[in-house]
Design goal:
- The chain is of the alpha/beta class.
- The chain has 2 domains: about 160 residues, no CATH class; about 140 residues, FAD/NAD(P)-binding domain, CATH 3.50.50.
- About 30% of the residues lie in helices and about 15% in strands.
- It is built from 13 helices and 10 strands.
- The chain has a 6-stranded mixed beta sheet with strand order 4-3-2-7-6-5. Strands 1-8 form a two-stranded antiparallel ribbon. Strands 9-10 form a two-stranded parallel sheet.
- Helix 9 links the parallel strand 9 and strand 10.
- Helix 1 crosses helix 2.
- The longest helix is centred in the last third of the chain and has 18 residues.
Length: about 400
Amino acid sequence: MAENTIADAAVALPSQDLNGPVNVLQRYGEEASKRIRKDGLQQYIDPSQTEQYRHFLDDPWIAAGTPINEVVPNGGHARFLIFGAGFGGILFAVKLIQAGFSVEDILIVDPAGGFGGTWYWSRYPGLMCDVESYIYMPLLEDTQYIPKRKYASGEELREYCEAICKKYDLHRRVMFQCAGKTVDWDDRKKEWVAQIALKSKGGPTGQTTIHADFVFFASGVLNNAKLPNVQGFGSFPGKQFHSARWDYSYTGGTQEKPDLANLQDKKVAFIGTGATAVQAVPHVAIWAKELFIFQRTPSSVDVRDNKDTDLSTWESEVATRKGWWKERNINFVSFVNNVEPKPEVDLVNDKVSYNGDLNHCRVWCLLMKKRLTTTTPRSGLWLRHTVA
């Protein structure tokens, strides 16, 4: 049954485990089948579609009344229209500039209040990227930036986005707090016509029309708040927020210093045990009076083994020559995808690239499942009355 489910879902499987009594393929199928439900996306609430839940999408990082900089007037034209101000949109813009186009030819549109994409929205305590910073952070050769640590924090990634945009003067060619509604091709004029919603925080809404020769889509999905469609969720009277919009005004602290002192007299429930929980829960656990964790299926957890970048060996071992960033990425992908023959040296050399260490991850996965299922309250009423 699990085998058929995997085939139908076209899920990429890990390599066969030959080092232990547990069949990883079978276990993978069992866990995957728990996530594939008949109700599909109906198991979640889309907060953008209902007034009751729309506040979960409010931007906590800009002040109410922040004006929209309409760099292109209603009915105006941009040669290149880019939807998305995260790394994808930023890279589209930079590559166009490097190809010889002017920044004046570009218009970037994003519903956020700043650059960064998911790193703009997500600022929960402990936020880090699980991919080595030396390969994840783009344009390192162009900016000559040296990541602070092997795995970068969300704060550093957001600041790096801002630094790139400052270098290429992108700030004056972006319309924040704006979202694309429709994009249609005008065959007579041979141009795109985009209808864009203007949504200033705490201010009036509106719409503008932008004409463009080329349209780029770099809108991701990791910035969206996904809410569980469970009984009682909408009637809970206490404080609720999504980790993608962490409310430090309620918990106390900041992303830079996550001292969540306001939780010291609070009973807190954390829904989910994915990568976000692995990073944020330890911080919440330090401060909350009581903490309950609700888990559907376990995640694999391993040692991060993060460390500061060694400046004395940066040029001799990492940034060794022109083109090093691309070479390092190709090397990493070769190990992750089990390319044969493998490169002689694993340049990244972490738990992601060394996928032969599946047993280590699996042991943590089993321990996590056993511990949480024995401590989580069984009653559905617990979920209703402790959601936070």
